[in-house]
Write a structure and sequence with these properties.
Helix content is about 45%, strand content about 10%. The chain has about 425 residues and is an alpha/beta fold. The chain binds zinc ion (ZN).
Length: about 425
């Protein structure tokens, strides 16, 4: 309110202690940015802490003093940002809840020891959540439900709702003619029933108090073009052209929605593979889906993150993910260098591309594939990711982590003094 009225406590007041001598010209913008950065910082903390922030914020809007001292305490120049490391983890038994409580306990206590405070738990059925929440809580690891979103090779759903599944540029459903592998059965993100189905899945997860957030994986179209290493594996054209059998989605819903918008039928477009309006339609349909899920998750006071392809350009080109535009709290690009036919050093370039394109909008965490890294290389990958501006790393998978890896990961972290140790 002081700002709006143009009156202030004065340059020498407590409010501006430690700030530049002259009164900042864009003070309201500065404060808004501070608030945004505080909110981002707090987003990763437990829900209670977030609620406390909102409480403090609402008090602060009434009392400038409370607000200002709170804001300044959060941007102290001496305060180093805390490094956040994550792990994708999964049950190792034959069923979703096959692991014993002791096995989970051992995994979480190890993660904690290895400076990994955040776990993304592969969640196929809700029973695993109920089993794991108390153990994660006991060990002090923040738990998020990692879900496979659009790749949904479920026999019952395919039988009951065949129209929910994507159709390729030749008019073939992925149920009858899946691309690449037999379980490449994908839901269509344009179909409103699919959107509701996913939102319901997410809402059910958000009902668990012990969960801090939801993590979206396979939130994309089937691969239009494969990464170099995968291309070699399948009997497909070895080029970067868009072939109609791998180009999705041409289902009735997509066709009629696009027709409504543009007056054109995508199935008969002469430039089907390159038509800009048709490409944008698919970027936007995924963006809208993620944004709806974000609103659903945030209504419950939880956090939304997503695993995406390595760089903004590769993501758009290969799987129609325009993730720079998505509403997310965190983004975790899968920097799996071997799939790209690249050395470990490529991680730095790829991470930097994402970090620079995001321009501070949200934190980016580099996804590192342990099976593609020797222990020494994990040290290098960690160091390069942090150097390129990642806010931490995500291990695929935490189950494969061990002392040997940790020895080098620790070295990679300590090469970056800008992060505090804990
Ligand atoms: Zn469709």
């Amino acid at each position: 309110m002081h700002i709006e009225q143009g009156v202030y406590e004065g340059e020498d007041s407590y409010f501006w202690d430690g700030m530049p001598n002259s009164f900042p010209k864009n003070v309201d913008g500065t404060i808004l940015n501070i608030l945004k950065s505080i909110e981002r910082e707090l987003n990763i903390q437990r829900v209670m802490k977030k609620r406390e922030f909102l409480k403090v914020f609402s008090v602060a809007t009434v009392g400038a003093f409370t607000f200002s001292s709170f804001a300044l305490s959060c941007i102290s120049p001496d305060r180093k940002p805390r490094l956040k490391n994550w792990a994708w983890i999964h049950p190792t038994g034959s069923s979703d809840s096959a692991n014993s409580k002791n096995e989970w306990k051992k995994l979480f206590s190890n993660l904690k020891k290895w400076n990994i405070d955040y776990a993304l738990l592969l969640t196929q059925t809700n029973s695993i959540i109920e089993q794991v929440i108390p153990v994660a809580k006991q060990e002090g690891v923040e738990l998020h439900a990692w879900i496979i979103a659009l790749n949904w090779p479920d026999k019952n759903t395919m039988k009951e709702h065949p129209q929910w599944y994507v159709v390729n540029g030749k008019g073939e459903s992925c149920i009858d003619k899946p691309a690449y592998v037999n379980d490449y059965n994908w839901l269509c993100p344009t179909n409103p029933e699919v959107v509701e189905f996913l939102k319901k899945r997410v809402e059910e997860l958000c009902a668990y108090d012990g969960l801090a957030g939801v993590h979206l994986d396979y939130i994309r179209y089937p691969d239009v073009v494969l990464a170099p290493e995968h291309k070699a594996k399948y009997d497909i054209p070895q080029d970067d052209l868009v072939h109609p059998q791998f180009d999705y989605c041409y289902c009735e819903v997509c066709r009629s929605k696009f027709k409504e918008l543009s007056g054109m039928d995508p199935l008969t477009l002469p430039d089907q593979a390159t038509n800009e309006a048709w490409l944008n339609f698919r970027f936007d349909t995924l963006t809208n889906l993620v944004n709806e899920i974000y609103d659903t998750v945030h209504k419950s006071g939880k956090i939304l993150s997503a695993a995406v392809f390595p760089t903004p350009d590769l993501s758009k080109f290969r799987v129609r993910q325009d993730w720079l535009k998505w509403k997310l709290d965190y983004v975790m690009p899968m920097m799996y260098h071997r799939y790209e036919g690249q050395p470990v050093e490529w991680l730095e370039t790829a991470t930097r591309e994402g970090v620079e394109a995001l321009a501070g909008k949200i934190p980016l965490f580099s996804g590192l594939h342990l099976a593609q890294l020797k222990p020494q290389e994990l040290g290098l990958a960690t160091s390069l990711s942090l150097k390129a501006g990642a806010s931490g790393i995500v291990l695929f998978t935490g189950n494969a982590m061990n002392e040997e890896y940790w020895k080098y990961m620790k070295e990679g972290i300590s090469s970056h003094k800008k992060y505090s140790e804990s």
